[in-house]
Every structure is written in C-alpha cells, then in structure tokens.
Write a structure and sequence with these properties.
Oligomer: single chain
Largest sheet: 8 strands, mixed, barrel
Structural class: alpha/beta
Number of helices: 18
Distance between the termini: 92 Å
Strand content: 15-25%
C-alpha cells in the first residue's frame, strides 16, 4: 500500500476539511484540503513548516500533549483548537483530530474540520481559571451542561471522568516555582487533550480534576500521561498514580440536564469539604457516591414538585406604627425532617428552583382565586433571582400574572438575593413589566450579600426587606443600627418602602419603628401557620412617632382573615 493511499485513507477516516501530516520532527510533510479557509493560503505553502507555527500560542501545549501521548494505532479528538493564520489577530477555531496509523508509526495525521453550530452548542471559549488552561468548577459545570444539552441533537454518549492525584501538593512543594508551573501546565494539557473539545477539563481542588469526553473513549491514556509527567518531575522517580471514576452523563432515569445538575452540585460539595469529606476509597469514591446520592435527591425533588407534594404556610407582616396586618408572606414546607432553607438552597444550586418557583406561584394564584378564600387575603411569594435569570421562567411568570389580573392588589413577588443575579439590566426590565401589571415587587434579604446596594441601584422596586442579621443586632451594635438608619433614609429618598424580618422582641420592634422602618415580620407577630390568621401582640405599644407617616399603597387590611 502506497503512502499516498494511506494518506487518503486517513483523510477519508477523518472526514475533515484539511489533512496535515506531521513527520517525526513535528513539521508538515504533507497537506491536502481546504487550507485557505483556515490559514488564508494554499495547502502547499504549509509543507515544511513546524506545527507549532500553525497553532495559536495558548493552544500549543494542548496539541503538544496530543502528539506526545499518541501511541501507534491510537486516535485523539475531536478537540477544539485555535489556529494561527497570516493575521495574528484572528485565531480560527477548528475541531482537531489526530491519529498515528500502524503503517506509518513515525508520522501523525491531523485532521481539521470547521467548527459548526451543529457540532457543539457554542464556540464561545470558556474562561480558564489559571495558566494550566483548566476551567474552575463553575465553568466546567456550565460548559458540561451546555454540551450535554447539545448532545441531544447529536448521537453522542458523554461521560465525566473525575481524577484524584494524591500527593500532587507535596510533589509541587519539592519543585522550584518554574518546574511546578511547568508540571501543572503539562497536566492541564493532558486533561484537555482527553476532553471532548479541548475546553471541558477543569480543576476544582488542589488534587482534584475532571474532564468531559465521549462515553466509549478509553481514559487510560490521560491517566498514563499524567503518571508519566509526574514521574519525570519527581526527583525520586515515583510519580503519582491517578485514581479515577467515570460517570456516564446519560445514564439512569434522570435527563441529561439532571445528571449535569447532580455533577455540578457534587463538585461544589467536594470543593467545600476537601479531604475531610473523603470516605473509605478516597476522594474519587466519595465523589462517585455523592453524585449518585445527589441524583436520587434531584429525582425525589422533581417528583415532589410534579405532584404538588408540598404545602404553603403563612406568616404575618404588620405595620409597626399601629400593629395592623399588612399582608402575609407565603412560605413553603416540605417533609417534616427537611429544612426549608436547605431544600431551597439545594433547588437553587441544582437548577431545580425554576420549576419549584413556578409551581409555588401557580399554587398561590389558584388559592387566591378559590371561592372559599377570603377576598381580602393579600400575600407575597418568594421568587429566586436565579429563576428570573431564565427567559423561559420569566415568560411563565408573565403568563401566570396575565391570567390573574384581579390579583394585582393581592399578590406581590419577593426576589430573594440568596442566588447571584448576573444581568441586572435584564432583570430590571422583567421587574418593570411585572410592576406595570399592578403587582408589587420586593427585594428580599437586603444586606445579606455584598451586592445589595448594587441591586438597589439597578432595580426599581416597591419594597426592600432588611436581612434579619441586622435586625437581631439593632439593639446591640451601633454600627448595625446606623446601617439600618442609612438604608431607611436612602429608601425614603428613592420612594422605596422598608420591611424588617426576624423581629422577636418588643424592644426590637420599637427601635425599628423609631428608625423609620414601616413594616415588620417575625415571631413577635406570629410564626408561620397553616392558616392565614393574625392576632396583634398586646404588649406592643402603638404611640405615635414624630417621623412622617409613610403610607402604604395598599389599604383595607383587617386584623384577621377569618
């Protein structure tokens, strides 16, 4: 069989736009195909050039790792690689495959294909967390979710391999800075080379790594390459034997999105717990067990939402000036042993909160419209800021509120700050559409996060709820009292009203009222209950204050809903 025939076999095998053959010295010995779409020049001009001159500098370690680790008869790819054309400011992204045919063991055939929308869900390059080119845990989770979602339209079975490199920290400590940096760069390149597109490998702890790949692709090559790299770097010549676990991303009863949610959540928990979270079998076994447990929990939570297997309770919110009932906050309750806070946090961190939030909103709207419900009942419902970040969820909220226009004066939405809100401009547009329908909006847990004042600046809302952390210390810490005073004054100038939560004593209520806080919520006025009932505390004084009367827009509230 002639070398020319072998080349065409490789080209046909790759089904690519351009085939480049590399010799033992790393130079292009042969090229055929549409080179002009990648390099703005004819393929013949590529011959004799070093492959490193064709690849963008930031991706050179990735390609080098591919070339070094490729055994005879082996194949790597596809991975996403940026090429260096004649114009250095333009780095074109391509899908890169490499194989070392047994008939030509001293040569490597590299196949380049155009990166199209049908190949992967996005060509947007994720941001690496360090010089090793690896993603952090959040970016890896997002990238994994993106590609797993895209794999529905492709015939791809995906898997995530989790690696533990025990002793890596000690090994780096025995090296000088340059050697340690070089080792991490080469480990990162080996992981990226084994990943699906060269951009789905990450590091989420000092000795914990992971990468996404096709499910039927062997993982031994990556582990072997890392073991070899660490052995070369170790003066004692021992190196590190990686411990790995591989999880198929389309296994089980959960959807691919559910699998990704479980993996992302488990990565977060592993990063928080570190080596202390390990059980018998090491961190890799711990991760494996954690993912499986999380998948079961996600499945159970999804079934709970689907079957409406949760209940709502009511906690009164009152006017501090005269103890009159203003409205009730609707809170969710689950199984007796399940903490509401932990359940909601789990829903937020696993991406389930959107389904839950819309289920609660629909349940409350149905309750308010029911014949047996007192028409004077007014409530506020919590909506996660993360949910409102979804276009689909925002559309569902708009549709639900449009279908219940009569509830405009009886239903308010509280945006929780427990999840990071990224696009404040977009969120404000959603908030204004809600307010234009007559539904008031409250910014919940104000002060709990560092970005609170940024939210207040960007979002035009009706209410701000002061976090209980400040309320509990209003009588003990002058700094916290001054913070509340400043916030109340700022809100007054902005035309935003204030609510204080977690009020437990008469003294706290009196101090907050004197500061100018309009509404209060807490055990002093009533704990969450199955029925919306309110009985004013007899010991709370109602004398007037010299401060101006900040009247609420709503009127006609009674002490009890009967």
């Amino acid at each position: 069989m002639t070398s020319q025939t072998i080349r065409y076999m490789a080209f046909a095998f790759a089904a690519a736009d351009l085939l480049i053959e590399l010799d033992a010295e790393g130079r292009v010995s042969f090229a055929i195909g549409a080179a002009n779409i990648f390099f703005d020049e004819d393929e013949k001009t590529l011959e004799g050039r070093r492959w490193r001159d064709l690849v963008a500098e930031e991706d050179a370690p990735l390609v080098e790792a591919l070339v070094e680790a490729l055994d005879v008869g082996g194949r790597y790819g596809p991975v996403m690689v940026r090429l260096r054309g004649r114009r250095p400011e333009i780095n074109r992204r391509v899908l890169f495959n490499a194989c070392r045919l047994p008939q030509q063991p001293d040569r490597i055939a590299c196949a380049l294909s155009q990166l199209t929308a049908g190949a992967f869900s996005s060509v947007k390059a994720p941001v690496a967390s360090g010089p090793n080119g690896l993603l952090n845990k959040d970016s890896l989770g997002d990238r994994t979710a993106e590609i797993v979602a895209a794999s529905k339209a492709l015939d791809l079975r995906l898997a995530l391999t989790f690696l533990e490199l025990p002793g890596l920290t000690r090994l780096k400590g025995r090296l000088d800075d340059n050697s340690a940096r070089s080792l991490m760069q080469r480990i990162g390149a080996a992981l990226r080379a084994g990943s699906l597109d060269g951009q789905t490998a990450g590091q989420f702890a000092d000795e914990q790594f992971g990468y996404l790949h096709e499910a039927d692709k062997p993982t031994q090559a990556v582990a072997h390459a890392i073991q070899k790299l660490t052995k070369e770097a170790d003066r004692d010549g021992q190196g590190i034997v990686p411990i790995s676990r591989t999880m198929e991303m389309s296994a089980g009863e959960l959807s691919p999105e559910g699998i990704v949610r479980a993996v992302k959540y488990s990565i977060d928990r592993m990063a928080e717990g570190g080596t202390e979270a390990a059980v018998d079998g090491g961190l890799a076994a711990t991760f494996d067990a954690l993912v499986n447990a999380t998948m079961e929990r996600i499945d159970a939570f999804g079934r709970m939402v689907k079957h409406d297997d949760f209940k709502i309770v009511y906690q009164p919110i009152v006017t501090l000036r005269d103890k009159s009932l203003h409205h009730f906050e609707v809170l969710s309750r689950f199984e007796a042993e399940t903490s509401p806070y932990e359940a909601i946090r789990f829903a937020e961190e696993t991406g389930l909160v959107e389904d839950f939030d819309i289920a609660v909103l629909m349940k409350v709207c149905g309750m308010l419209e029911a014949r047996e419900t007192d028409p004077r009942l007014t409530v506020a419902v919590n909506i996660s800021g993360r949910s409102l970040g979804s276009d689909l969820f925002a559309g569902l909220v708009q549709r639900e509120l449009t279908q219940h226009p009569k509830l405009a004066k009886r239903l308010a939405l509280e945006i929780t700050e427990s999840a990071e809100i990224k696009d404040l401009t977009r969120l404000d547009a959603i908030v204004q559409r809600i307010r234009q329908k007559g539904f008031e909006v409250c910014l919940d847990d104000f002060g709990a996060g560092a970005a609170s004042f940024q939210y207040l600046r960007a979002l035009k809302v009706d209410w701000v709820k002061i976090d209980g952390l400040y309320v509990r210390r209003v009588l003990k810490d002058q700094r916290d009292k001054a913070m509340i005073e400043s916030l109340v004054e700022l809100c007054r100038k902005l035309g935003v009203r204030t609510v204080a939560e977690q009020i437990e004593t008469v003294e706290e209520a009196a101090a907050l009222r004197a500061i100018g806080v309009e509404l209060g919520q807490g055990w002093l006025f009533g704990r969450p209950a199955d029925l919306p009932a309110y009985k004013p505390p007899l010991e709370l004084p109602t004398e007037s204050s010299d401060r101006p009367n900040l009247r609420a827009r709503r009127a006609g509230y009674r002490e009890s809903w009967g």
